[in-house]
Each structure stands twice: as C-alpha cells, then as structure tokens.
C-alpha cells in the first residue's frame, strides 16, 4: 500500500473516531474500505503510538478515550 493511501485512510479513521461515527467494527471497516482484520491491525498500530481508542457498545462506535487524536499535516519547510 502506498504511503499516501495509508495516510488518507488514517485521516478518515481519525475523522470517524473523533465524531463517534464509526459504527460497529464491520461497518467501520466498510466505511474505510478494508476487511475487519485489517481495521483491527490499523487500530492496534494507532494504540501502539499512544492513542487511547475504545469501543462503546452503547453508541456502537469507537472513540478517543483521552482526547488525543492523530493529526496528519503537510507543511512547507522553511528555506535554509
């Protein structure tokens, strides 16, 4: 998978998680265009870098438990 595709997927995941709009794991996987097992791999990778992601059975959505998010941003470097 290309880096750009992966980063875009992480952005989409972040957006859905921050809005508590992921749905169930199956629905979340469908929304980002991956298999459920791939979704779980991505969630584990996010957790490994320190993002506290939980799942609410009541809301049927993943959410950020500690307020931290993943923000991916490209900026221009300053000229030397």
Descriptors for this entry?
80 residues, mainly alpha, Arc Repressor Mutant, subunit A, two-stranded antiparallel sheet, 46% helix
How do the strands and helices of this protein lay out in sequence?
Elements: H1 3-18, H2 25-32, H3 36-48, E1 53-56, E2 61-64
Helix pairs in contact: 2-3
Walkthrough of the structure:
The chain has 80 residues and is mainly alpha-helical. It has one domain (3-64): Arc Repressor Mutant, subunit A. Helix content is 46%, strand content 10%. It contains three helices and two strands. A two-stranded antiparallel ribbon has the order 1-2. A hairpin with a 4-residue loop joins strand 1 and strand 2.
Q: Under CATH, the topology is which? A: Arc Repressor Mutant, subunit A
Please trace the helix and strand order, writing H or E for each element: HHHEE
Q: Specify the CATH architecture.
A: Orthogonal Bundle
Low-confidence stretches: none
Count the DSSP helices: 3
Q: What profile does the largest beta sheet have?
A: 2 strands, antiparallel
Order of strands, widest sheet:
1-2
Report the principal-axis shape.
Answer: globular
Between the first and last Cα atoms, what is the distance in angstroms? 33 Å
Structural domains: how many: 1
Range of helix content: 40-55%
Secondary structure: number of strands:
2
- The chain-level mean pLDDT equals 91
**Strand percent estimate:** 5-15%
């Amino acid at each position: 998978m290309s880096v750009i595709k992966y980063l875009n997927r992480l952005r989409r995941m972040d957006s859905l998680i921050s809005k508590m709009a992921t749905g169930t794991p199956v629905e979340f996987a469908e929304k980002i265009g991956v298999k459920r097992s791939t979704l779980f791999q991505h969630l584990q990778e996010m957790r490994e870098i320190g993002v506290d992601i939980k799942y609410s059975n009541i809301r049927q959505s993943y959410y950020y438990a500690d307020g931290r998010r993943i923000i991916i941003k490209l900026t221009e470097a300053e000229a030397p």
